[in-house]
Write a structure and sequence with these properties.
The chain has 427 residues and is α+β, with helices and mostly antiparallel strands. It folds into two domains: 2-159, dinb family like domain (Four Helix Bundle (Hemerythrin (Met), subunit A)), CATH 1.20.120; 184-425, paralog of FGE (formylglycine-generating enzyme). Helices cover 32% and strands 12% of the residues. The strands form four sheets. A four-stranded mixed β-sheet has the order 10-9-8-11. Strands 1-4-12 form a three-stranded antiparallel β-sheet, covered by helices on one side. The chain has a three-stranded antiparallel β-sheet with strand order 5-6-7, with no helix packed on it. A hairpin with a 2-residue loop joins strand 6 (269-274) and strand 7 (277-280). Helix 3 packs parallel to helix 5. The longest helix is centred in the middle third of the chain and has 31 residues, at 129-159.
């Protein structure tokens, strides 16, 4: 079977498409129809919308162009479930998505079935190389929305006074690190190549591969833990303007920040809300701190006497490392402590647990060229006012991530599984 997939890339793409579509539905199984209507913050979208939009992507960019005689399930869906593709059609304001009580969930599921059946017909017709590229892009796009679906549900359930659990608790947070802080692994400076190699799928923002000069540096061998971040808080971290970038300090004052998102204090004790419900901080103190903004990550690094890595330092350290860790496939659905005794093992937690904020602004690489046509709006038009994150999280599909993968969010973003790895310049 593996040889057949290697000899016929269309078989591998078809298998990926089918698996991804099934996984999205599986992630919705714990949810009620009412759960799937909630949009609890401006950044989030209802789960029902994620189901429809990912289907819209295949209909709009694959079936309409490459399946002769394709008949749309509903012509209104072409604009109703568009997200931000200005050159494709108009679209409703994002903040209104929770008001889409119609079409109902049953109709959205029928829409998925309609498109999946048409995609199956297309895949049986020896589709063109461009059609296959679009299908592979669509599968990766849907994997991004699987992660967004879970982060959005976490926020929705947190805003519910009952604080329901998406999944039941397991034995998360059982490993111990000991009392020592993180060790640092040294990396050589010099000339390094950065960006996708052109082997297998990548997004356009990972191209073109180019050379950068790095001074010798060191990365912490694990992510900053909840317990360590609590020390920052206890030392007045949120009340000391000298630790913060100006825009970060403005965000602290404007939003009354005093802890990461999903941390709640009652009677002097902190708890952390997760996809597995609320957990006492003491039980997960050695798990990575998550749901912090770039501003919080930068302030913590300054308080600790270090800095955040650049995205190039991170990629140079990660290239060649196995893609394994606490990713969506592991089923934890929350950051987990690193294995003990890491000091002689280099960097752990490069993949999974939390996206790692870097000190790099999200910009195009030298020679960057967006995709042709409407799909060129996918990444390039967001290259302003965003910071790069690397490494994936506990809700990132393992097949989706790689060393060159560039995630990006505005520096004030907190609702994602975003954490902190410290860096320093080697002498």
């Amino acid at each position: 079977m593996q040889k057949a997939l290697a000899d016929k890339p269309e078989l591998a793409i078809a298998e990926r498409f089918t698996a991804v579509r099934r996984q999205t539905l599986a992630l919705c199984e714990p949810l009620t129809p009412e759960d799937m209507m909630v949009q609890s913050c401006p950044e989030a979208s209802p789960a029902k919308w994620h189901l429809a939009h990912t289907t819209w992507f295949f209909e709009s960019f694959v079936l309409r162009e490459f399946l002769p005689g394709y008949k749309a399930a509903n012509e209104d869906f072409a604009w109703l479930f568009n997200s931000y593709y200005e050159t494709f059609s108009q679209f409703p304001e994002k903040r209104l998505r929770s008001s889409f009580s119609r079409p109902g969930l049953d109709e959205i599921l029928r829409y998925r079935e309609h498109v999946d059946a048409a995609m199956e017909r297309l895949l049986e017709t020896d589709p063109s190389a461009e059609a296959l590229r679009r299908i592979e892009l669509g599968a990766n796009h849907e994997e991004q929305h699987q992660e967004l679906l879970l982060t959005d549900i976490l926020h929705a359930f947190f805003t519910n006074p009952l604080r329901p659990s998406y999944r039941e608790k397991g034995n998360e947070g059982a490993r111990e690190l000991g009392d020592a802080g993180p060790a640092f692994s040294a990396f050589d400076g010099g000339l390094h190549e950065i960006g996708a190699r052109g082997e297998g799928f990548c997004f356009d923002n990972e191209l073109g591969r180019h050379r950068v000069w790095l001074e010798p540096y060191a990365l912490a061998n694990r992510l900053v833990t909840c317990g360590e971040f609590l020390e920052f808080m206890a030392d007045g971290g949120y009340s000391r303007p000298e630790l913060w970038l100006s825009a970060g300090w403005d965000a602290v004052k404007r939003n009354g920040l005093r802890a990461p998102l999903y941390w709640t204090e009652q009677d002097g004790e902190w708890s952390v809300y997760t996809l597995r419900g609320s957990m006492p901080l003491g039980e997960i103190s050695q798990a990575p701190v998550s749901q912090v903004s770039y501003f919080e990550a930068d302030a913590y690094a300054r308080w600790a006497g270090h800095r955040l890595p650049t995205e190039f330092e991170w990629e140079a350290a990660a290239e060649g490392a196995p893609i394994e860790g606490n990713l969506l496939d592991a089923g934890s659905l929350m950051p987990s402590p690193a294995d003990a005794l890491l000091h002689d093992q280099g960097c752990a937690q490069l993949y999974g647990d939390c996206w790692e904020w870097t000190a790099s602004a999200y910009l195009g690489y030298p020679g960057f060229r967006p995709l042709e046509g409407t799909l060129g709006e996918y990444n390039g038009k967001f290259m302003s006012g965003q910071m790069v994150l690397r490494g994936g999280s506990c809700v990132t599909p393992q097949a989706h991530i790689r060393a060159s993968y560039r995630n990006f969010f505005s520096p004030e973003t907190r609702w994602q599984f975003s954490g902190i790895r410290l860096a320093k310049t080697s002498s």
